[in-house]
Design goal:
The chain is about 40% helix and about 20% strand. It has about 120 residues and is an alpha/beta fold. Helix 1 (about 15-25) crosses helix 5 (about 110-120). It is globular.
Length: about 120
Amino acid sequence: MSSHGKEVVLIGDSLKVKEFQYGLEREGATVALVANSKKAMAYLQEADKPDGIVFIIPVYWENVSKFVDEVKADKRLATVPIIYMGDFIESTDQIVLKRQGVHTLTLGPVPTQEAVRFILSKI
C-alpha cells in the first residue's frame, strides 16, 4: 500500500510530534499538525476528510475518548481510522479506546520509523 497522497492529522504538542511529521512526510504522506483535540475537531470540520487521525503522546487531561465519540458521531468522519500513540497507556484507557475502534501503540522501545509504518498500515 502506497502512503503517497495519504492525509494524516497529527494531534499533540510535543517534540515527538515533529519526529512523526518528518517520518510520515518522508513516506509521502501529507501531514496537518494540531495541538489538541478541541483544535483538531475544529480543523476537521473545515478540512477535507483525512485518511487518518493520530494522537501522539497526548497530555493526561486530554479526553481522547470524548474526541473519538465526537468523530464517530460525525457521518463524514465516522470511518476515519484513529490511532493513539503514547509513552505509556494505562490498561483501562487502552481497553476503552480499543472498544471504540482506536488502534493503539505504546512507544518507548519502538523506533519512530516503525511506529510510522504502524500508522500507515492502519490508514
